[in-house]
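Bumping my old thread because nobody answered last time. Still need a sequence for this structure:
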């Protein structure tokens, strides 16, 4: 037991060291530009792997983030409040988006869905902001709130019993990132590591039999912990199905108090 606890602590600390520099300033206010997707089809082919589920997140207010925000897939599902700086055109509240894709455009930190883009505008100014195509904005990381939804696991179609299991993690709340995943048979202490395939998709070729439980390494700034979902997949799990984990993550990032003047504003919204 002591050896197991030591290995768990090592794993969590290892992941924290990897991501702490990325997360250090996310709740500070950043200055950038955003554009928008001309076609809604881009939302179903995002690098996070959400597919046709993506347009349903946050009422369709979704976005592609630059590599530093996408963070090799760990940033998938992160929520950001964005508001444009044109006071005559845009509201003070802006819009909140969920990251569902990777933005390769080095001129903007985000590319938004058209619904999210127009949501930044004042009433009656939708077409005016669309005509601009790209606007100056300020943004900050905020907690995700899926209200009545728990963290969920979708079994990907490529999964095969006892041979291969690929899952997609959905509805991750709070202000956190999942940086590790393990699976075991319910009642067993023999955990098998999963590998991030891409984005929010994890896989393993070591698939336990029977009902399955999951354990996720979750980070929030410089703090991290295991989140244990004890009864997730039934023994007769099926590809293409979404299963409720029975748990939700609501941690707030505690490692974000120091803002670099070159990247962030001194004040808060």
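Sorry it took so long. Here it is:
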């Amino acid at each position: 037991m002591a050896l197991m606890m030591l290995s768990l602590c090592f794993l969590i600390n290892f992941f924290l060291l990897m991501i702490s520099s990325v997360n250090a300033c996310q709740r500070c206010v950043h200055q950038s530009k955003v554009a928008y997707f001309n076609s809604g089809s881009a939302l179903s082919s995002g690098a996070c792997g959400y597919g046709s589920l993506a347009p349903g997140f946050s009422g369709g207010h979704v976005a592609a983030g630059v590599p530093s925000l996408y963070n090799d897939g760990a940033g998938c599902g992160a929520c950001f409040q964005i508001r444009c700086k044109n006071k005559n055109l845009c509201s003070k509240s802006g819009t909140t988006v969920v990251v569902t894709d990777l933005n390769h455009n080095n001129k903007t930190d985000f590319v938004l869905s058209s619904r999210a883009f127009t949501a930044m505008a004042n009433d009656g100014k939708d077409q005016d902001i669309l005509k601009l195509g790209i606007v100056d904005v300020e943004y900050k990381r905020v907690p995700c709130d899926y209200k009545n939804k728990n963290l969920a696991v979708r079994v990907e179609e490529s999964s095969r019993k006892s041979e291969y299991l690929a899952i997609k993690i959905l509805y991750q709340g709070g202000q956190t990132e999942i940086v590790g995943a393990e699976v075991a048979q319910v009642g067993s202490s023999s955990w098998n590591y999963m590998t991030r395939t891409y984005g929010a998709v994890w896989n393993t070729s070591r698939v336990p039999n029977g009902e399955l439980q999951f354990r996720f390494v979750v980070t929030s700034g410089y703090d991290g912990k295991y989140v244990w979902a004890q009864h997730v997949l039934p023994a007769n799990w099926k590809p293409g199905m979404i299963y409720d984990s029975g748990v939700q993550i609501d941690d707030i990032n505690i490692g974000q108090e120091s803002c670099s003047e070159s990247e962030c504003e001194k004040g808060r919204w």
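The radius of gyration is 19 Å. Let me know if any region looks off to you.
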